[in-house]
Amino acid sequence: MEETKNCNHHGRGLIMIFLIIAMTVIGSLSILRERLVRNDSEKFTVSSEGKISAKPDVANISFSVVTDTQKDVQTAVQNGAEKMNEVMAAIKKLGVDEKDIKTTAYNLNPSYEYVKSDPIIKVDDKEYQRPNDNSGKSIIVGYTLNQSIDVKIKNLEKIGEIIKEAAAKGANQSGGIGFTIDDQDKIKTEARTLAIKKAEDKAAKIASDSGLKIGKLVNVSEYGNEPYFRNDFAYASAKTMDSAPSAAIPDIQSGQMEVIVNVTLTYEVK
């Protein structure tokens, strides 16, 4: 009997120990949760935008030489190569570096013509009317060569003259002109610095007006990986160049670009 009482007493003791441990663990988790929630709630974030306007300093334009239909491949290739070589030589003469000229297309294509079949057919020396007078087939009547190059122009004052000379030497198609900023990192850095300054001023103003006491800066995040360029005049539409007067020099305007960077600052709250 006494042994049974001792066992019961020992069991109750173990239960009490487990209860104490469980209560300690629950209490620790509650404290940790409270600290996490409090830490999250004791943060203050503010966002702002930095916008820098800059004039583009680089233009990109494509030129193509499309030959007339030639009866044989060799003539089409030779005519196309001669014209494109003259175009590139003229562009280089106007100050464009060879490394800034890149071939982007070289397409040799057959030209087809639909030929109707003879309406009379012969079978065993007898002539019969073909049942379908519209029957026929496509035959190759020649070949055309289409070559394209992309040109990077760093002297924007030369754009019009380059277009004029390229057309005079045989370029009969031109792609849209795209303008950009060569050193984008520099402009982006300026926009980011402006965005951070505006966010800091905004945070200080909110704190002053609301009585909120903000502490140290704990995080800075930036929206997006690339600067955003907005320019209503950045592209000239593509068109053929044959109709342009040979003596005319196009007046190409690059306009302005806006580099926009957004940042969010996170502060501790005292």
Task: Describe this protein's structure.
- This protein has 270 residues and is an alpha+beta fold.
- It contains 4 helices and 12 strands, in the order αββαββββαββαββββ.
- The strands form 3 sheets. Strands 2, 3, 6, 7, 8, 10 and 11 form a 7-stranded antiparallel β-sheet that branches.
- Strand 4 (120-123) and strand 5 form a beta hairpin.
- It is elongated, with a radius of gyration of 38 Å.
What are the key terms here?
270 residues, alpha+beta, seven-stranded antiparallel sheet, three-stranded antiparallel sheet, 4 helices, 12 strands, 36% helix, elongated
Short description:
The protein has helices spanning 2-41, 73-93, 159-168, 184-210, and strands at 43-54, 58-66, 101-116, 120-123, 126-129, 136-153, 173-174, 177-180, 214-230, 235-236, 239-240, 257-269.
